């Protein structure tokens, strides 16, 4: 495998870039969102060498040996013990064997890691949970609490804006409902005559769903675009961020994220199909690894994180003087 020299994302640390010279990684890493310089990085300074000391009994003209720190315990104390289990027992799965990565020609060892595009060595045990932008992922419970709070706010908004249409719809459905119960009480269940449904029911239902969808859009998208939080998310202490950077979502990304979950509201008219799609989207974070993304998060490439709970430091908080309360003391 031959990879052209250039700046690539470091497989060991996806938040940084390093320069691949065609044989190995060189130079210091840079942040992944920084603009890499043209060409390879400047050479690192060569560490100072330990001054050489003369070896007693050395022949004239023989180069002096460098000073080595004496190992405690006498000769042979610095020899590394053999790994238990025989040769190769300490090699991690997927890693190089003897400094040699599989697939390279003999002698082309790459101790600093595999080239771009190669899988990195796997480690035994459960991998640690990701921390996007240094913050822990929000739990499903916190996300559910935030969504329930937002749902309550939307119910109040619909009661204020959609109340007249809902009252009209209930009035139009009262006639067929009363006729149905009259037939039940009279024993006319086998009556095949259709129930008297008003022609305004369909129009009222569509109007209610359209207004409810618009209210949801106006409530969620602007606040998510600017702060990454709705009222419910602020109370739950969570925030939505782009996967690639700690920055505001912006109007376009916030709209894409909302539309996956919000637009199916218009399909409630089709035998509750929209409600089924929203339920699948709502439970999808339970089955996603490792970022716990819902379907609307995957479409917008966002992640939900838990914000730290900051508490006032008692060492920097000015104590309150109860004898002299704030205010005019004249």
UniProtKB/TrEMBL annotation:
Highest taxon of source: Bacteria
InterPro entries per UniProt: DUF2510, Pra-immunoreactive, RDD
Localisation per UniProt entry: Cell membrane
Composition-biased stretches (Low complexity): 49-71
Location of the RDD domain: 138-300
Domain DUF2510, residue spans: 5-37
Positions of region (Disordered): 1-125, 305-330
Signal found in the keyword field: no
Keyword Transmembrane attributed: yes
Topology term for the membrane: Multi-pass membrane protein
Pro residues: bias regions: 37-48, 112-125
Keywords from the named record: Cell membrane, Membrane, Transmembrane, Transmembrane helix
Transmembrane intervals: 144-167, 201-219, 266-287
UniProt biased composition (Gly residues): 85-101
GO CC annotation: plasma membrane
Stretches with biased composition (Basic and acidic residues): 310-323
PANTHER family, per the entry: MEMBRANE PROTEIN, PROLINE-RICH ANTIGEN HOMOLOG-RELATED
Protein name: RDD family protein
Annotated source species: Micromonospora narathiwatensis
